[in-house]
Q: What sequence folds into this?
């Protein structure tokens, strides 16, 4: 019984389950009292999901019945009890059919004097009807929640199934239509990603046109700034050029040929960053093509051919774009236009020498703001910490936060340079360092400050900003040694004036060239590569696809995609059908109201005193707090049942444990144990108020019904 209670308790923990208390009359009357400390206390207490079923009514001793139980008087349940008569083993062996058994059950209830008045509420058909009614009520109550859940699932599938709704595999034009739609959608997606008007905006990272824009206006200028000449190197080269042009002669005037030689050498240096810019754009376009081709994954061969054709075209345009850029640089190199309106000319070169030696940036101009982490602070001093950095033309400051109210430190940019720092083994940060060329501490006792960013792109962007502020990368050690040797060369005052003049002229003209290249590079790449690629996808891609392979082979679906489409369509139609079925359920179904609650105080009063719910021999001593449950008729008017609450208001005195002579009603009481009935009659307990009739049956009862719930039955 304990295992049964545990299993029943596990099942009844589900809120949508119903429990049937099935038992023989003897077990119901004697054993159910043991359940309040078990599963009965969990789900029979409220009674909303418990229905009592009494079996073996036809096997009770003559003169006894379970009327009090079936009338819900002994152990009340909110939904009551239903009695049934099952086939016996003899009926089963005799192959008695179900119809005959139901007829015999009906006859039993109609002919039994204790059950005939409730025969319409007894029997297996009534139990079946009751259970069906409960199931119907439960379905009606669950329909709104189920309908809402199905509708939400259907809405989530609507968008995905939209392209499959009109799918017909037997349509001969299906593959052609699908190919045209796929190519057109591919072109639209590519253009939207480049122009920045896509319907699915990525909020996590830059992509497509935004990254290309960043290459044009941030990465390419950074590469140009990296190529800027060092002041000492430039002066040395100019002095060599002047001396080589003069030869054995001593020059009286500053030669313009030295200016042209130096300028052409600086223009040649523009080729490397320009070609690198093209490579970065090509790499980004390849990424965009792969992203756009993801929608073609339903047709693997079509996706493969599309990527191959478009990528091949981009590579072809890459070659032409690089040729055009190199042509632009060669054009700039072929003729030095000293009459340019922005060129300072020889007349103004010496007057502006003092100004051009200084940074042309406005002192208070903010070049960049952003978060950086100082990576090399020791753990004793707090460890790595993130600050808000502000870079101007003259200093680098960092604050506690972006409000810029609490300044932590301000570092002048004089004599500072940048060097790369290798990424740590366990670190996901990208680091670069700032140090002083005069071997001075940069911040407190640190010779260099290691600044960490989340990505390499952020590092490159910050380096570009530092270069704009005049903080250059560290030169190689070999170059520094060579430069130190050459710097020992001294110049006479006249040569020094000539070098200064040409240096200013070169600086002015190279600035003009850089401005022109920075303007023409994005235009050239957009025209020769990106716009041509968009036109190719819209006008020529379909023809290349038709010529590259057979249409049937291109439009072969992958097995996974076909299975996914079938599953999605099946789920979609199943959801619609389920909603239609729910909508067609008749609202005229009779719904029985929930029975009123019963008095369950006896459960609460006896739950702490009930013995362990096991089958054990009956004790002659009644549990404390409950009178002997002995029922029987009394002479005169019929007895009224004692209310449940009244039973708890008094306690019966203990009955002696010695056995007495057998009661005269022992043969008629199927629930009593004759050797354990006390020898003296039970008297009314002193705690019973006056006027309450005795519950002990007289000598000659008209219908003896003696039920002792705490005693085991002889039938058990």
A:
């Amino acid at each position: 019984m304990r295992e049964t209670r545990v299993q029943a308790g596990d099942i009844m923990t589900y809120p949508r389950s119903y429990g049937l208390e099935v038992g023989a009359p003897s077990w119901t009357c004697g054993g159910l009292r043991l359940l309040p400390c078990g599963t009965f206390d969990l789900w029979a207490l409220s009674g909303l999901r418990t229905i009592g079923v009494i079996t073996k009514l036809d096997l009770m001793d003559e003169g006894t019945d379970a009327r009090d139980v079936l009338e819900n008087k002994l152990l009340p349940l909110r939904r009551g009890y239903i009695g049934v008569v099952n086939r016996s083993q003899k009926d089963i062996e005799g192959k008695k059919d179900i119809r005959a058994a139901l007829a015999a059950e009906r006859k039993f209830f109609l002919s039994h004097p204790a059950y005939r008045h409730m025969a319409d509420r007894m029997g297996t058909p009534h139990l079946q009807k009751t259970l069906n009614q409960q199931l119907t009520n439960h379905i009606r109550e669950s329909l709104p929640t189920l309908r809402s859940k199905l509708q939400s699932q259907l809405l989530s599938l609507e968008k995905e199934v939209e392209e499959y709704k009109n799918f017909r595999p037997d349509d001969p034009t299906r593959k052609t239509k699908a190919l045209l739609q796929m190519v057109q959608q591919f072109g639209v997606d590519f253009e939207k990603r480049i122009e920045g008007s896509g319907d699915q905006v990525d909020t996590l990272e830059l992509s497509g046109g935004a990254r290309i824009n960043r290459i044009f206006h941030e990465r390419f200028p950074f590469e140009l700034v990296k190529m800027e000449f060092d002041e000492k190197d430039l002066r040395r080269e100019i002095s060599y050029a002047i001396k080589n042009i003069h030869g054995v002669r001593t020059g009286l005037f500053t030669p313009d040929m030295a200016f042209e030689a130096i300028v052409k050498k600086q223009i040649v240096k523009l080729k490397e960053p320009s070609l690198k810019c093209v490579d970065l754009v090509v790499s980004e376009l390849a990424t965009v093509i792969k992203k756009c081709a993801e929608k073609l994954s339903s047709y693997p061969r079509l996706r493969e051919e599309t990527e191959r054709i478009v990528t091949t075209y981009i590579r072809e345009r890459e070659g032409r774009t690089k040729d055009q850029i190199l042509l632009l640089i060669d054009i700039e190199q072929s003729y030095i236009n000293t009459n340019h309106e922005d060129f300072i000319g020889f007349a103004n070169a010496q007057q502006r020498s003092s100004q051009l030696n200084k940074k042309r940036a406005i002192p208070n101009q903010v070049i960049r703001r952003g978060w950086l982490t100082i990576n090399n602070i020791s753990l004793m001093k707090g460890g790595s910490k993130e600050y808000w950095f502000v870079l101007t033309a003259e200093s680098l400051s960092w604050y506690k936060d972006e409000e810029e109210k609490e300044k932590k430190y301000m570092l002048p940019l004089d004599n500072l340079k940048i060097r790369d720092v290798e990424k740590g083994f366990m670190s996901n940060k990208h680091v670069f360092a700032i140090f002083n060329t005069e071997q001075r501490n940069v911040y407190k006792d640190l010779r260099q400050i290691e600044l960490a960013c989340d990505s390499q792109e952020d590092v490159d962007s910050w380096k570009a900003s530092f270069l704009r502020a005049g903080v250059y990368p560290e030169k190689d050690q070999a170059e520094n040694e060579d430069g130190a040797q050459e710097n020992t060369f001294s110049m006479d005052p006249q040569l020094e004036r000539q070098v200064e003049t040409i240096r200013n002229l070169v600086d002015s003209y190279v600035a003009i060239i850089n401005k022109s290249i920075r303007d023409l590079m994005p235009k050239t790449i957009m025209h020769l590569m990106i716009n041509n690629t968009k036109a190719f996808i819209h006008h020529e891609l379909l023809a290349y696809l038709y010529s590259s392979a057979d249409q049937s082979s291109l439009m072969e679906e992958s097995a996974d995609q076909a299975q996914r489409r079938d599953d999605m369509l099946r789920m979609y139609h199943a959801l619609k059908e389920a909603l239609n079925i729910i909508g067609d359920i008749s609202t005229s179904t009779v719904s029985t109201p929930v029975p009123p609650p019963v008095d369950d105080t006896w459960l609460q009063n006896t739950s702490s005193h009930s013995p362990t719910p096991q089958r054990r021999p009956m004790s002659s001593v009644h549990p404390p707090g409950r009178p002997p449950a002995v029922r029987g008729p009394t002479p005169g008017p019929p007895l009224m049942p004692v209310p449940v609450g009244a039973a708890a208001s008094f306690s019966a005195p203990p009955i002696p444990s010695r056995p007495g002579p057998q009661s005269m009603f022992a043969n008629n009481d199927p629930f009593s144990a004759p050797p354990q009935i006390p020898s003296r009659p039970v008297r009314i307990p002193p705690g019973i108020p006056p006027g309450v009739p005795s519950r002990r049956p007289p000598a000659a009862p008209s219908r003896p019904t003696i039920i002792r719930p705490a005693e085991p039955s002889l039938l058990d």
Observations:
- The CA atoms of residues 83 and 122 lie 5 Å apart.
- The two ends are 13 Å apart (CA to CA).
- The first helix runs from residue 2 to 12.
